[in-house]
Q: What sequence folds into this?
């Protein structure tokens, strides 16, 4: 038995072989992701065909376009039957699409306001920015509108002084009487200042020291400047209002809760356009006779109320998603309602609600286009004006494409920022 | 030895209204209520005074006056001699029509896109993502006016259909014509139909006088008419579906008893389709195709550009949102579920149908409803393209003609509020019934 030939046994490892070339590298990736089976392959081919068709239609049209012409007919003459874009309309009407009738020697003002706003947002949105920038954030709400509408500098100063007055009165009474008295009297003093004294103050000071810039009327506002102005004020004002409404809806105070629910459900049940009708034709009836304030301001109020109701629902979702233990822990620490909200509840609830909040913002910004229906000259309103012009009658893709592109860039970057923020604030547990 | 004593009885002090949490909430609420009532009273008082000064009274009497304007797209009889109220009803029906069409199209497209976006095929999922992002990040109003502009500027005029070698062609066996004046589709008609009956007869409306005097019931008598043919078909269809359900139940019983499931598909199809076909044959069903006569198409159903543009734009826009909802719903189901189903031996199709989708449906349903509501509310943008929905009739022409801003806008809000609240309450009831019952 000993000389029985044993079977061959390999004693050393074989060299590792490279995987089949069809399964690795770009080829393998294509096989796996584009042609794994016959159905998927068909889908890939169909997609390729769609992309090809679109590119073939789009690229010669867009890049063969005419940039210098004064009317659609001139464009067509230059193109001589070639189907290509007439970008000349954008070239010629660019500033109107951007600023409406805003006086062109004053374009720097909205630009500066926008830059100021961006600088002001930096310390709010990104941590690690120098804290001194916060002063700009504080000043922007007063300087921004002043830059846009112009007029005497004392109006924003008077408005800002209201806060100073309020805080000063609060400090004084809180130390002299009690904290509660301060909480009541401080805001009261500020409101009295704004309603009764601020106007006189600014009149008086500007008659002594007339400092100011050229005023611009609201009806001159237009184009993307109007959309951005409406969008930003709406966003800035609807966020705190939404938080208050959400807290009201979650509260156990039955009257507060009923009022909040009623408001939210009413606003969410009607389309924005009906609220804009209210701003346009009905609001004048509800205010004392003779109050006639600007249509843009009225529209801003309505857009803010509209967005606030949606914001409230989003934030309520965040509040509801928070485990009950967080509320109980805050109570156990002896925090009162507002302390608990500020330190424990809101930071977590808002974090949960970020995607919803940002999509509400995006929705609000898109909804500003509705003002074109009540006759304001936002980008879509301007497209209609330009189309009504005999020189550009019949132009479609170029104008709408341009407006859509600008909206897309703004909204898409907002949604990307929200994703960044979600990742940044992710703590690993929910 | 200790004695139990009652805690000292506190006398009520005024400061307890603020500092004692037992009373504070009451104080806050009363202050809020008073503030609210003061505000409301102030607004109403202003409104009353301003109306009085403008010489207007708050009344809805104008609704029963003749409207004096025409509506080109309508589901029920209407002429410029009809009342403003009827114009509003025409508008409401138009709103519901475009909302219903939009919801159906958006759901179909959205589900397909959502699934495509989840596809393992890289190119397909990217393409779907591009569509979704492009649609979502551009205002719906822009899509609506753009679609309208495309319809008007780039679609062929009816005269281009004429001649031996027409420049434009009709689709689907010469039955659908897409023109710059709108889309013409065939109209279902019945050769020996049962006729219409007027409903909600109001004897004051025109055409009812002769009926009161013992004559024929005129078509224009009554708020609207209901086609008996349609009712018959719906009834037969429902009966068929009911029978099919009984059949499924029977199959379930047999399966539970014997383990063998009788084939139900063919029986069910036959039970639903055959009687319907028989009824259609009995009624003499035929399609009335649109035909080019003179300068325009005659026959068939004429869907105006505005309706088509609004419908397409709203569906394409909302589909992007629905796609995201569907995708999120399917992704929300833990992978373990599909693995468990695979371990039970189910095949891919059945895993989707029996395990994933029923669970995903619960996640998808509530946001889907809110998209339907958004679509319905966005349909008010019809006014931008001239489609006569309730915003166009009641909030547009009626408002401008009568100058009754207060009444019309309030009524308009009420209409939308009722539509929204009824949709959401029905859907919430459904949602509660189907919610996961947790112990």
A:
């Amino acid at each position: 038995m000993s000389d029985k030939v044993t079977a061959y046994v390999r004693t050393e490892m074989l060299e590792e072989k490279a995987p089949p070339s069809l399964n690795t590298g770009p080829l393998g990736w294509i096989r796996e992701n584009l042609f794994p089976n016959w159905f998927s392959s068909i889908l890939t081919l169909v997609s390729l065909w769609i992309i090809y068709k679109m590119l073939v239609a789009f690229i010669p049209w867009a890049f063969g376009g005419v940039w210098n012409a004064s009317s659609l007919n001139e464009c067509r003459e230059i193109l001589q039957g070639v189907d290509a874009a007439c970008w000349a309309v954008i070239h010629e009407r660019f500033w109107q699409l951007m600023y409406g009738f805003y006086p062109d020697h004053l374009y720097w003002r909205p630009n500066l306001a926008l830059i100021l706003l961006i600088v002001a947002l930096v310390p709010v949105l990104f941590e690690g920015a120098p804290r001194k920038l916060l002063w700009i954030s504080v000043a922007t709400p007063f300087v921004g509108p002043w830059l846009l509408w112009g007029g005497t500098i004392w109006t924003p100063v008077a408005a800002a002084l209201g806060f100073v007055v309020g805080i000063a009165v609060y400090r004084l009474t809180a130390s002299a009487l009690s904290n509660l008295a301060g909480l009541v009297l401080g805001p009261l003093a500020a409101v009295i200042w704004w309603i009764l004294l601020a106007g006189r103050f600014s009149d008086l000071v500007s008659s002594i020291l007339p400092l100011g810039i050229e005023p611009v009327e609201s009806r001159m506002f237009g184009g993307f400047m109007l959309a951005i102005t409406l969008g930003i004020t709406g966003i800035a004002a609807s966020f705190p209002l939404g938080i208050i409404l959400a807290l009201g809806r979650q509260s156990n105070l039955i009257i507060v809760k009923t009022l909040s629910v009623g408001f939210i459900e009413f606003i969410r049940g009607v389309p924005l356009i009906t609220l804009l009708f209210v701003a346009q034709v009905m609001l004048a009836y509800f205010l004392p006779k003779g109050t006639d304030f600007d249509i843009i301001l009225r529209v801003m109020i309505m857009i803010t109320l509209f967005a606030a109701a949606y914001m409230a629902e989003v934030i309520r979702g965040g509040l509801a998603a928070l485990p009950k233990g967080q509320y109980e822990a805050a109570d156990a620490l002896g925090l009162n309602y507002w302390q608990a909200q500020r330190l424990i509840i809101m930071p977590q609830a808002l974090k949960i609600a970020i995607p919803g909040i940002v999509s509400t913002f995006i929705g609000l910004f898109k909804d500003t286009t509705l003002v074109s229906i009540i006759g304001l000259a936002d980008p879509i309103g301007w497209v209609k004006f330009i189309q009504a012009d005999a020189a550009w009658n019949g132009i479609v893709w170029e104008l709408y494409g341009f407006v859509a592109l600008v909206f897309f860039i703004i909204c898409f970057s907002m949604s990307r920022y929200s994703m960044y923020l979600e990742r940044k604030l992710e703590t690993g547990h929910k | 030895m200790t004695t139990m004593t009652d805690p000292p009885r506190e006398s009520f002090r005024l400061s307890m209204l603020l500092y004692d949490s037992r009373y504070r909430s009451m104080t806050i609420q009363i202050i809020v209520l008073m503030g609210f009532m003061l505000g409301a009273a102030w607004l109403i008082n202003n409104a009353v005074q301003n109306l009085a000064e403008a010489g207007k009274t708050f009344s809805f009497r104008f609704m029963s006056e003749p409207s004096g304007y025409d509506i080109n797209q309508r589901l029920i009889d209407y002429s410029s001699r009809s009342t403003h109220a009827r114009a509003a009803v025409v508008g409401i029906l138009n709103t519901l029509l475009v909302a219903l069409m939009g919801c159906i199209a958006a759901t179909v497209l959205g589900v397909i896109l959502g699934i495509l976006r989840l596809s393992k095929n890289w190119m397909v999922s990217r393409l779907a993502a591009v569509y979704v992002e492009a649609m979502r990040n551009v205002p719906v109003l822009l899509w609506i006016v753009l679609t309208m502009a495309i319809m008007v500027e780039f679609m062929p005029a009816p005269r281009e259909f004429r001649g031996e070698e027409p420049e434009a062609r009709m689709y689907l066996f010469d039955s659908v014509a897409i023109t710059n004046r709108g889309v013409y589709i065939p109209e279902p008609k019945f050769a020996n139909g049962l006729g219409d009956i007027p409903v909600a007869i109001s004897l004051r409306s025109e055409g009812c006088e002769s009926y009161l005097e013992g004559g024929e019931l005129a078509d224009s008598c009554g708020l609207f008419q209901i086609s008996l043919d349609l009712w018959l078909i719906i009834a037969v269809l429902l009966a068929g579906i009911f029978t099919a359900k009984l059949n499924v139940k029977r199959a379930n019983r047999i399966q539970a008893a014997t383990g063998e499931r009788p084939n139900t598909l063919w029986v069910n199809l036959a039970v639903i389709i055959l009687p319907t076909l028989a009824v259609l044959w009995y009624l003499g069903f035929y399609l009335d195709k649109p035909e080019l006569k003179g300068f325009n198409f005659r026959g068939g159903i004429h869907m105006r550009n505005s309706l088509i543009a609004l419908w397409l734009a709203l569906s394409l826009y909302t589909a992007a949102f629905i796609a995201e909802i569907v995708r999120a719903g399917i992704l929300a189901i833990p992978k373990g579920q599909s693995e468990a189903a695979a371990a039970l031996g189910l095949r891919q199709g059945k895993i989707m149908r029996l395990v994933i989708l029923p669970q995903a449906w619960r996640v998808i349903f509530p946001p889907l409803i809110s998209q339907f509501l958004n679509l319905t509310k966005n349909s008010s943008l019809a006014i931008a393209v001239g489609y006569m929905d309730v915003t166009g009739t009641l909030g547009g022409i009626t408002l401008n003609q009568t100058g009754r801003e207060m009444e019309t806008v309030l009524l308009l809000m009420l209409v939308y509020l009722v539509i929204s609240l009824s949709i959401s309450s029905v859907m919430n009831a459904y949602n509660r019934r189907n919610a996961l019952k947790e112990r």
